[in-house]
Amino acid sequence: MALNLPVPWPSGILTRPEIDQEAGGTKPTEFASDVAQVESLLDLMAAQGRTTCPAHPIFGRMSQKAGLRWAYLHTDHHLRQFGA
Fold this sequence. Notes:
Order of helices and strands: HH
């Protein structure tokens, strides 16, 4: 449902520890370089038309279509956080 309902993801839901940047996830560095790296990875995903991510901690293994949908929704969620 989280991937297919036409509603924005809510704010305030805690991130899983294994992907939380303060716990087991990727540590932030300098904001502008982090943004550039994310943009580069999104461009690569769009060009390839697929994801190569490991199993998601909540959704598990996803089809290519579901993985791309998740990437879109996740990116949209964070862009909304920053008012983009």
